[in-house]
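hiii, so i know i said id send this last week but things got crazy w the move. better late than never?? heres the sequnce for the chain we talked about at the cafe, plus the structure i predicted for it. fair warning i was half asleep when i ran it
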Amino acid sequence: MSATPLPLPALFLRYGTFAALATLANLGVQRLALVLWPGPGALLVALIAGTGIGLVIKYLLDKRWIFYDRETGARAHGRKFGLYTAMGLITTAIFWSMEVGAWALWHSTAAREAGAILGLAIGYVIKFQLDRRYVFRSNQ
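okay and structure toks below
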């Protein structure tokens, strides 16, 4: 069962808002992880923790409010979340490369987070297309 699709500008605004929320959660968890894990591998721990929370938040919002997917149950969620995560691997490579690259060049929190925001923005544009085509295609 699908809802009436939003006009394209409203859909982009909603998707962008959700991307911004997931980005803020991601960067917030990264900051927390860097404080709690200040030792070796801190940036990797922060990247993994932030990406994980951002992924879950974005999946739940996209599933319901972007792609209008009403399927329930562990099997449906497991399959779709698996596909959603697989599509995210491509875009995560973009995001992490830009974040780590900015850190490597400028060694500052501001540069690292600016790289993350730019990488996430590019990644989310690509991810929308991948999710629409491969993850939530039955809802179109």
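btw The chain has a mean pLDDT of 92. thought thatd interest u
miss u guys!!
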